What we know:
Distance between the termini of chain A: 15 Å
Largest interface: A-B, 16 and 16 residues
Number of strands of chain A: 4
Radius of gyration of chain A: 13 Å
Order of helices and strands of chain A: HEEHEEH
Helix content of chain A: 25-40%
Oligomer: homodimer
Shape of chain A: globular
Structural class of chain A: alpha+beta
Amino acid sequence: xxxxxxxxxxxxxxxxxxxxxxxxxxxxxxxxxxxxxxxxxxxxxxxxxxxxxxxxxxxxxxxxxxxxxxxxxxxxxxxxxxxxxxxxxxxxxxxxxxxxxxxxxxxxxxx
Amino acid sequence: xxxxxxxxxxxxxxxxxxxxxxxxxxxxxxxxxxxxxxxxxxxxxxxxxxxxxxxxxxxxxxxxxxxxxxxxxxxxxxxxxxxxxxxxxxxxxxxxxxxxxxxxxxxxxxx
Lengths: 111, 111
């Protein structure tokens, strides 16, 4: 059982702390297929999932959309033929919150 | 009636010609909200559509997916809270084909 994927997002305020570098390195161990990338100076989590056609890709996009709505936290989802790239970060704090690692782990449970 | 949106994509081969600069400038007049951008050296058509929430955005993503499957030509669709960015280009010829302008016009018809 992946502990991270069973957690729920907590309310995030504009002054909520970003995860520290140390916390990030620990959390990423639970979601090893994700990488931390910097986009416009903002730390994000990103993973690309591969599929055999477009229909499977967009079906996955919809599943990610469903958990996003359930948790009230939304990623950027890039849907292409045979692949979907999901990027999580917390807009309010312009960086990574514990919630993003939780959502990444939940996303992994969808495949 | 937008003529471009009523056309159907033609079969595209690896040696099909890219649209010329002159053709591109003429075709873009029919889809004025799209811009030609260069991604990794490849000319693409891109437009961002805005919505009031995530559900509307992903509903639009699905509509774009449906016409993509119908025509057998697939874009990159970036779904975010309140917006969807659609990018059309033709993978086989690494650039813009007449089909991409047709699909951009068809995408505009979905809103």
